[in-house]
Design brief:
The chain has 404 residues and is mostly helical. Helix content is 62%, strand content 1%. 51% of the residues are buried.
């Protein structure tokens, strides 16, 4: 996965290198930031940010990896100041040209993203944290653990997008993609077990608020920037989505790595994998299987993939409902801009799409502890008029049992 820089800042090797870097000598200021946040000491946070802003001549000598590390540390202080009320950039106006240059050098938005907060964040004693609570560390790790798998999964999705659904390799590669996506379920299980909704809603959420840089409103680090939505785009959402999800994706794309933005642009203009499978089965699935026996395995594998995504989305929806309950929340929507209602609609859409790959409607209707409250009523409208293969085995049911 290369970017316009000619390098892949998302690779495991480069991510590990970035975590070791400290171009702004920010280790101590970032550790002190925890206490300053606890005390809501805005003057100290502003002073710390001002002391770390490098000269543009210094930035010109940074490697791309050092640019990422510098954005990571400036971003933590920007988010900290905003948490306590003030818009941060006007308080330290000299940071604006630096943020713009760091964004240009890395081909990313001119502020920190979820990548900076997790994958590019040091671990151990140097870990950048807003409050230092162990729950924050678990949340960071839950995201860090999935990025390598999603990166590999996106490359597999790229292959599947160009591969015939009747190719014998299609089912094998789809199962490989499913194995990578299953780490999302493990990740969210870690969050459920170790991060309370009260802590996230009342303490951590406020650090991920939007800020304004050079007149542009930029979202903070957000789970929405973890690109499961990009796998959705390849597998089903490019032509089976709904306006709210489409708008959400367009808003999320700028916060992605350059390569992932390229994939989104490509997949947005081509039929989804599910639509190609539906077309291949046509009106006579049995005849289609006689002509292309591999179609059955392709449908079963795709059903397993969608079932795992449904299980993840159901558990994510359960967490969001608790964290954004009207009696608990401080903010009406997530830091990535998604409401709980949108998450429910996305879950319903995914569940409805899974039905198109199942032998029986029941194959995609099972529930888990996290998704039992989500109903598929809205999804029927999203899939109306689509004729499905209706011919895969109980693969979706097996996948749900495996991940539940």
């Amino acid at each position: 996965m290369t970017s316009t820089l000619g390098i892949d800042l998302g690779s495991s090797i480069r991510s590990a290198a970035i975590r070791e870097l400290d171009p702004l000598a920010a280790d101590k200021p970032c550790f002190d930031m925890r206490r300053q946040n606890e005390d809501a000491d805005v003057p100290a946070l502003v002073s710390s940010l001002r002391s770390l802003v490098p000269a543009l001549d210094d930035v010109a000598g940074y490697s791309p990896e050092e640019c990422v590390a510098a954005m990571r540390d400036l971003g933590m202080l920007l988010g900290s100041i905003k948490k306590h009320g003030p818009e941060p950039v006007p308080l330290v106006p000299e940071v604006t040209p630096v943020l713009l240059e760091l964004g240009r050098r890395t081909d990313m938005v001119p502020r920190d993203t979820v990548h900076h907060y997790t994958t590019w964040n040091p671990t151990g004693g140097r870990q950048r944290m807003y409050c230092g609570d162990v729950q924050e560390a678990y949340l960071q790790e839950s995201v860090r653990m999935v990025f390598p798998h999603l990166r590999e999964g996106l490359e597999l999705a790229g292959i599947l997008s160009d591969l015939g659904v009747d190719d014998p390799k299609f089912g094998v590669l789809t199962d490989e993609l499913t194995a990578h996506v299953e780490t999302m379920v493990s990740s969210i299980d870690m969050v459920v077990a170790n991060v309370s909704p009260v802590f996230f809603a009342r303490e951590l959420r406020a650090y991920f608020e939007e800020i304004t840089v050079d007149g542009r409103v930029l979202l903070g680090p957000a789970a929405a920037q973890v690109p499961l939505w990009l796998i959705d785009q390849a597998v089903w959402a490019s032509d089976r989505s709904e306006p709210g999800y489409e708008e959400f994706l367009r808003d999320s794309v700028p916060y992605s790595l350059p390569r992932w933005r390229e994939l989104y642009g490509h997949w947005t203009g081509v039929p989804s994998v599910v639509s190609r499978l539906v077309t291949a089965f046509g009106d006579d699935p049995e005849e289609a299987e006689r002509r292309a026996p591999s179609l059955r395995a392709s449908g079963e594998a795709l059903a397993r993939l969608l079932r795992v995504i449904v299980v993840f989305r159901g558990r994510h929806l359960g967490i969001a409902r608790k964290a954004y309950d009207a009696d608990l929340r401080l903010y009406p929507v997530g830091s990535g801009g998604a409401s709980v209602d949108l998450l429910r609609r996305i879950t319903d859409l995914t569940r409805a799409t899974a039905r198109l790959t199942g032998r029986r409607p029941e194959a995609a209707r099972g529930t888990s502890a996290g998704d039992s409250g989500a109903q598929a009523s809205d999804a029927a409208h999203a899939s109306a008029g689509a004729s499905g293969p209706s011919h895969a085995s109980e693969g979706t049911e097996r996948a749900e049992r495996r991940t539940a």
